[in-house]
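INFO  loader      accepted 1 record
INFO  loader      residues=183
INFO  predictor   begin
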Amino acid sequence: MNTILPSGLEAKFQRFDSDLTLDDDFAIAGYASLFGARDQGGDLVEKGAYAKSLGAGRKVKMLWQHDPSEPIGIWDEIREDDRGLFVRGRLLKSVARAREAAALTRAGAIDGLSIGYRTVKSHKDEKGARCLSEVELWEVSLVTFPMLPDARLAPHEAKSDVLHELAKVFEDARLNLAARKAR
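INFO  predictor   done
INFO  writer      dumping tokens
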């Protein structure tokens, strides 16, 4: 959904995908936007759309549900890669709403990210979709209803299962290497 906020900024919603993490220190990471993925409003964000804004040194805010009166943390890293707009930040334990957001995210009740931005340059593609080629990024929010419904947050408990599996793979590789050296 593409929404115009009372401030005049546009908001674009997207769910966290399986790359999201939330650790015991209230750190979160995931993709706030995916390049070339058509959202429910029919818009596509092009690779490089955030580059100029990110290079301007503006401090992108972390908000709760796009509410400018509810900052809940800080983004330590925001960057474009081949996949989209990657964000890494921390919910602030000293903020009550951030503690609530952490609990809701862990429970799977909140699993979305949404960007607040101003369109600088866009064009229509051959299918009539608006292609955002340059945006001014203002904020990335944790939200209930993101724009890309198929991208899902992996349950918090699954993170430890993945780590156990990964540890087993490394242990098996170590044992195989030791067995080869012994031959």
